[in-house]
Design a protein that fits this description.
The protein is of the alpha+beta class. The protein contains 14 helices and 26 strands. A hairpin with a 2-residue loop joins β1 and β2.
């Protein structure tokens, strides 16, 4: 079941689309009939046109440069006309159609009622049902009933190359969804959009542009499919009609490009006002795939500031989503709602995602610090103000108006801004199988953050103790999932830090399938019983961390660094082999560790299971000693 606010936003999106459609349909009844002999201007009044759940009202409508008579026009506008819209629109010819005020009243779902009122609607150069240009000076939007009430305005609306006959066919005439794409709009622009709801959220868009918008005819018609989808989110009815209608709409929609400029979303949250902004958002389609680029994203809440230079998603496709919806629609029986597995299967193909120039300014830990008085006394009442001027009870210098420095003064010492920055992040996802990508590669370059942010975290939480104040990190994680072999190949997991070093890990895990990523506890538990470790390669390169570690330990143990180093070498050569069972592999690991401690450079360990199926996770957890595990591995270790 969708959240009510989510339903509102989805409905608002449909309403916006419907508004543009209704703009095109408003003059549609003006079918050109050849009864009039001369070109003339014709005006009719009190026009009312019901279109499904929408009611169009125009107090006055004028057709200029047309051969229609007033009687012809009045007959065409009859709501109970038995002549199909498509036929009437195909015969429409006029120099222009003018509607000073056009009102669209839309009812549902539930108690919601939305009214859109357009000003100065003009269609120009109408030939055989095609409009060369359609404009509206602006519009007001009002939702006056239900919990999702709100209001807004549009600036100028302009569309070119509008095919009214194609629009009518898509919305009212059923098809099989396999016919040719029918272009409805050549271009469309909407400027200065503002909408505010009762919850205190305001959305503003400076400009919207679309190009080559159209689609295919579908079984329920677009109007019927929208009604099914709008009414199907209550979660109480058969989901199959909803899935079928949603699949039809997604597959039938054709978009050349969309661009949005100057988006801002503000929310008067009680915990602090929130402002989210996007400088530019652009979508471009290429066959079955598309790309989306977002420039200059910003989020602020109190002292928190987040900025992203660019976010790009390339190679996206809704083909897997459509296939999953069609599968649900074809089920012999189905109840309401969608399961977690089905929701995962609805995930579209995301392709490659790139994020660049991320910066996050964190709120300061404290705003003010009081300067302690030199003599330990508390600040006197009526002392100096922050600017050093005399406060009540302290005389000022008659020459300057200032007082001498006072140790009892209150000083303002703002905490330094703590910033997290990321130069670039890339995420490449392979084709999904049951919603799980077959391959994933994540790369983070130039991640910088204060070291105290990781304090307390496993392993890296000790970095502040070793004298690191700021961290500069790079990360790569590359993995593939072989569903047939049920193997998860960790091709590369690398973490490197400036003046720290590099840890690189690769290997193969067996018994891993898509269920691991379902997010359910039973699946994760089953992996513990079915999963296994087949191979592991570990590389550690030192770039300063070991020296800092040694210095910190020496200070704690009151030893010289060289003395402590010798003890670690001895522990590596003698203690590690004993712990690991004193086998040849254990001695090799100890010798390599000893060499690394003596001259910290690079340590490499290769381990492979002697058994083709690998060592089960449950066996690793139940092993009585490290030696019991090591005996089942072929191990090679070397240093420097």
């Amino acid at each position: 079941m969708n959240h009510p606010k989510a339903r509102l936003r989805l409905r608002s999106a449909w309403a916006t689309t419907g508004i543009l459609v209704l703009l095109g349909l408003a003059p549609a009844p003006l079918a050109a009939q050849e009864g009039a002999a001369a070109v003339q201007d014709v005006t009719v009044t009190d026009v009312v046109i019901p279109l499904g759940g929408t009611l169009l009202k125009a107090p006055k409508l004028t057709a200029s440069g047309t051969r229609l008579s007033k009687e012809d026009l009045a007959a065409i506008l009859r709501p109970d006309s038995n002549v199909p819209w498509e036929q009437r629109l195909a015969r429409l010819d006029a120099g222009s159609l003018t509607v000073p005020v056009l009102t669209s009243e839309n009812a549902g779902p539930g108690d919601n009622r939305q009214t859109v009122t357009y000003r100065d609607v003009v269609a120009r150069d109408i030939r055989a049902g095609r409009v060369g240009e359609l404009t509206a000076a602006g519009a007001t939007v009002s939702s006056v009933a239900g919990p999702n009430r709100g209001s807004g305005t549009y600036g100028q609306v302009r569309a070119t190359d509008l095919d009214l006959a194609a629009l009518s066919r898509l919305y009212t005439v059923p098809g099989d969804g396999k016919g040719p794409v029918q272009r409805v709009y050549g271009t469309i622009q909407v400027s200065d959009v503002t909408y505010s709801d009762a919850r205190g959220t305001t959305v503003k868009i400076a400009r919207l542009d679309g190009r080559d918008l159209g689609g295919r005819q579908i079984p329920d018609g677009w109007s019927g499919a929208f009604a099914i989808v709008a009414g199907g989110f209550d979660g109480s009815s058969d989901r199959r009609p909803l899935a079928a209608a949603a699949a039809d709409l997604i597959a039938a929609t054709a978009v050349g490009s969309l661009e949005m400029q100057g988006l801002s979303v503000s929310d008067s949250d009680p915990k602090g006002p929130v402002l989210f902004e996007i400088g530019r958002a652009a979508y471009t389609s290429a066959g079955s795939e598309g790309s989306t680029v977002l420039d200059n994203l910003a989020l602020s809440r109190g002292s928190l500031r987040v900025h992203v230079g660019r976010l790009a998603v390339l190679g996206t496709s809704l083909v897997p989503t459509v296939a999953a919806l069609q599968g649900i629609a074809a089920e012999p029986t189905a109840g309401p709602g969608f399961s977690d597995i089905e929701m995962r299967r609805l995930t579209p193909k995301l392709g490659n995602l790139t994020l660049s120039d991320l910066s996050i300014e964190l709120p300061p830990e404290g705003e003010l610090e009081r300067a302690p008085p030199r003599d330990g006394r508390a600040p006197a009442r009526g002392g100096l103000s922050d600017s050093g001027r005399a406060g009540p009870g302290r005389p000022a210098d008659p020459r300057t108006g200032d007082t001498a420095a006072d140790p009892l003064a209150l000083s303002v010492s703002p905490r330094p801004v703590r910033r997290i920055a990321l130069r670039e992040a890339t995420l490449a996802l392979g084709a999904p199988n049951d919603g799980v990508p077959s391959a994933t590669r994540l790369s983070l370059s130039g991640l910088s953050l204060p070291a105290d942010l990781v304090a307390g975290a496993p392993i890296i939480g000790m970095l502040p103790v070793y004298g690191y104040r700021d961290l500069d990190l790079d990360l790569v994680a590359d993995a593939t999932l072989d569903e047939k072999a049920r193997d998860l190949a960790l091709r590369e997991v690398t973490v490197s830090g400036r003046d720290i070093g590099t840890v690189r890990l690769s290997g193969t895990l067996g018994g891993i399938g898509p269920e691991l990523f379902s997010g359910t506890l039973p699946a994760a538990t089953m992996v513990m019983f079915s999963g296994s470790a087949k191979a592991l390669d570990l590389t550690v390169e030192n770039a300063g961390l070991f020296e800092r570690f040694l210095a910190a330990q020496s200070k704690d143990l009151s030893l010289k660094p060289d003395e402590l180093r010798k003890e670690y070498v001895t522990a590596s050569l003698l203690g590690v082999p004993i712990i690991l069972g004193n086998s040849a592999a254990a001695k090799g690991i100890g010798a390599a560790m000893g060499q690394f401690v003596m001259k910290p450079g690079k340590l490499v360990v290769h381990a492979k299971s002697k058994e083709p199926a690998g060592i089960g996770f449950i066996d690793l957890g139940a092993a009585r000693s490290p030696a019991a595990v090591l005996d089942r591995l072929d191990v090679e270790a070397k240093a420097n």
